[in-house]
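User: I'm curious what two different proteins look like when written out as structure tokens. Can you demonstrate?

Assistant: Sure. I'll show them one after the other, since each token string lines up with its own sequence. Here's the first protein:
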Amino acid sequence: MLLLVGLGNPGAEYVGTRHNIGFELLDAVAEQLGWCRRGEFDQVAKSKFSGLCLDGLAGGEKVLLLKPLTFMNRSGQSVQQACAFYQLAPSDILVGLDDLALACGRIRLRGGGSSGGHNGLKDIERALASEQYPRLRLGIDPAPPRVAGRDYVLGRFTADQRQAVDGALRRAAQAAICWMESGVQAAMNRFNAENVEP
């Protein structure tokens, strides 16, 4: 059993914001796996583990896609519930999230590491008592000068950013599926190496 978590905030006011790119990643993965059509994840998902879930098979492995609905800073609550229910190890989890340090259009997959100041990751680390779980970061560009990081991540992408992000989401979904089928090292080798500016 594997768990793919996409981080974001619930509610219509957050749809399409930079901080919700993790939710968009799950939409893209579910579509590529043929589990639902584009934009249908929230309608067909089950309400469980303080979030929205879809499950199925990928590469012969049962996989759960989870969008925590606890708000970003409490993401660990939802992740911990799912991990406890399925008795998952941190290495069985992949977390998709936004990253201010990466340019739009870039993705980076790692097998573990620090939160990098991301509040969603901080709470997951607290809940799991571990930093050793894979994470897939999607670039959203650094905040412009004199714009607070919090305001920037809760804003929406510019048209140019959106174009770059759409391409990155397709590649990130492929990377997540590669992780499901072949493991984190194979996905890192392939998708970090292919990670070029759009």
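Here's a second, unrelated protein for contrast:
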Amino acid sequence: MKRTGVLFLALPLLFILACGSSPAPASTVDPNLPEWLEELPPEDEIWGIGDAKLQNDSLARQTAGSRARREIATQLSVQVQGMLTDYAREAGTLNNPASLQLVENVGRELVNQNLSGAIPNAQKRTPDGKWW
């Protein structure tokens, strides 16, 4: 009879220990990303973020700046063109038909915008060699 009492006391204790808190998950922040990457611009500003990782540091920095300016221009004005191709073909004999169907969706964005006064307000070379 005493064994049953001890067993009933042990079960709640095991349950409480099993529900203990788990260790905190490891940080998922990538150290190769600039700290300002997830900031939002003020309502009266438009930001563009560009990045480039090339062998030539100077070219990588220029490319990152160009990509950021292109992102700003895209936010100001963009013309979107789309095309959908639907192709179907069937061939073969009466007892052995074969069919081929292809659907292709192609889209492209065209930007033609003159930017003046766009200057970098932050640049950073991360440890992995990428310019932001």
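A detail about the second structure: DSSP finds two helices and two strands in the chain.
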